[in-house]
Amino acid sequence: MSRARLWFLLATLAASLSLGSARAQRAHTPPAGSAERKAILDTIRATCERDLKQKVIFQVGLLNVAGDWAAARVTPVRPDGGSIDYRKTRYKEIDDEGAFDGEGEALLRRHGGSWQLLKWRFGASDTELSLWLDELGAPASLSRAN
User: Fold this and answer.
1) Structural Rg of the chain based on CA atoms
2) What parts of the chain have a pLDDT lower than 70?
3) How do strand 114-122 and strand 104-111 relate by DSSP bridges?
4) 55 near 85, Cβ under 8 Å?
5) Which of 5, 23, 95, 137 has minimal CB crowding within 10 Å?
6) Please, which residues have CB within 8 angstroms of residue 124's CB and are 6 or more apart in sequence?
7) pLDDT over 70, % of the chain
8) What was the pLDDT predicted at 13?
């Protein structure tokens, strides 16, 4: 076997093992009040507030971190804890039709110490989180409740 072929096979094996280990990483949920949780939710919040054109806080249904990956399912509420008035948003019509779910889901990755939102979906009654994890090679443990 040529040296170049051997290096290619070793590099392919190393890449496969690293992808496999990334997919198998154990996830944890950052505790309320932690800097990690705040950084992740603030990243999601910026996009959500632009979308809804109002300030929000989140009720967190799922928040998992595995290495440099994070996944979340959140429901925005007003800072006083009240429900969002979707009549003031682009979701008015689908909310009126009863085809709207006020939950959002996000997939993030940490680059250079800060979180970046890779995927955001809001208002749909189904989930795409597992599809995103497969598509981007993120750890499967992110979609599991801890």
Assistant:
1) 19
2) 1-24, 146
3) antiparallel
4) no
5) 5
6) 101
7) 83
8) 45
